[in-house]
Model the fold of this input.
Amino acid sequence: MAYLPIRRFIMPEVHFGPNSRALAGVQLQRLGVSRVLLVTDRGVMSQPWMDAIHRSLKAVNIQSVLYADVSPNPRDTEVRRGVIRYLREGCDGILAVGGGSPMDCAKAIGAMVTNNRDVLEFRGIDLIERSLPPMVFVPTTAGTASEVSQFSIILDTQEKVKIAIVSRQIVPDVALVDAETTVTVDAQLVAATGMDVLVHAVEAYVSTSNSVMTDLQALDAVRLVAANLPARMRDLANEDARNGMMLASMEAGFAFSNAILGAVHAMAHSLGGLLDLPHGECNAILLPHVVNFNYDAEPERYDQLGVLLGVPADTAPECRRAALLEAIRTMQHVVGMDHGLSSVGVKAGDIPQLARKAREDPCILTNPKACTEEDLEGIFLAAM
Done:
């Protein structure tokens, strides 16, 4: 039997299932927290299911300090304001409730609090030395999986680029994954976050840092997306599809957190930083073009993904690339994201700068095929 290469696999404690959000207070108490910074956004604060979280804090006498000034693409300035609030209010832990933006912002706040350095100094891999304050996360979208990952994506407002902070230190202590928090999500957000899940899984599976464990998670996530995202789009009230997408998001999160990502995310971060575009939509638009570029580097793996997305297993080898791309475009059509970058405001003159910034993103390091700036410019152009 051949020995497999050693790979670390990092994950938080996870509670998955209905009403797991109501465990927030108990879990924070167990971690020794008495006054928590609640990082969220205004939309989440108005949701009726938030009552269970507030009750859970009150039941164990944990005081909460609200910080809800977080943008869809969280800014470095918002992180710094959150740190000021955390310190001024004497907090000793963080509770993040929301999609990827509040959760990523919360991680960066925690890193600044304990490391006494600016958020932009953490850009890159494993640059956070000290452990963060206790952190409990409740995701409210089936998408980013920040609740289980070692990633935080923050917008550098001066350079207009999204930076990737990657560190085991920013993995939350506890993730409370409760699909009931996604009941009120609208169709556009379901589509964007659902495609983000698919890209997480695809990129993790073909990453140069994949492993047996990440492969298991990534493949099952793709299977779950294929089975549940179209059903969720047809009927937002479909409980089975909602639960299936939440599970897919978490599994894809485990996979990409440990295998890292690739060119789709590097390019999407560049787009989001320069033009402040929705992350999931950028991923959705870019996916088939990056797959087409990468296919020759990992044809067998891409073929496996194709089968999970509906490509017949007996498709002739010379037709499999085209069939996979067609399956991805079908999914784009199902979620209403079968348009190009030009339709969201990208101009040809933006492409050189976008390619340069994408080439500097850490996610590009694990793309299955080496990319030059010229390659990335070609992919951006094809996606227009």
